[in-house]
């Protein structure tokens, strides 16, 4: 199980309440297991809050606004991605334009990262 920083809970709640248009659009497709697994939005992992997290696929999805193309943000994003990768997670990043204008392509990329046949639970002898 990944560490959780309880001090980030109020910020995560605020971010869920103030989602961007692109986050709202992506959440429309991720919620209610529409991609085959549960996703959480604005989830605290260690000392960071990620936009979307699918624990069964160990998948983090980040939605980047235009500020993420600035040098400071790029370096911060790389550092966050390294941190999450060290935790055994795979990080996908999409910018607002991709989500708003190329939604189907984004969903196809995400779907490729989700296991089609999760392993059977321990003790289950069926095939």
Summarize the structure.
This protein is an alpha+beta fold. The chain has helices spanning 9-17, 21-30, 71-86, 96-101, 103-112, and strands at residues 40-45, 48-54, 59-64, 90-95.
Describe the sheet with the most strands: 4 strands, mixed
Task: Tell me the structural class.
Answer: alpha+beta
SSE string, helices as H and strands as E: HHEEEHEHH
CATH topology grouping: Endonuclease, Chain A
What is the name of the CATH architecture? 3-Layer(aba) Sandwich
- The total domain count is 1
Number of strands: 4
Label the overall shape. globular
How do the strands and helices of this protein lay out in sequence?
Elements: H1 9-17, H2 21-30, E1 40-45, E2 48-54, E3 59-64, H3 71-86, E4 90-95, H4 96-101, H5 103-112
Parallel strand pairs: 3-4
Antiparallel strand pairs: 1-2, 2-3
Overview of the structural elements:
By secondary structure, this protein is of the alpha+beta class. It has one domain (6-112): VSR Endonuclease (Endonuclease, Chain A), CATH 3.40.960. It is built from five helices and four strands; from the N terminus they run ααβββαβαα. A four-stranded mixed beta sheet has the order 1-2-3-4, with helices on both faces. A hairpin with a 2-residue loop joins strand 1 (40-45) and strand 2. It starts with 8 loop residues before the first helix and ends in a 15-residue tail after the last helix. The mean pLDDT is 87.
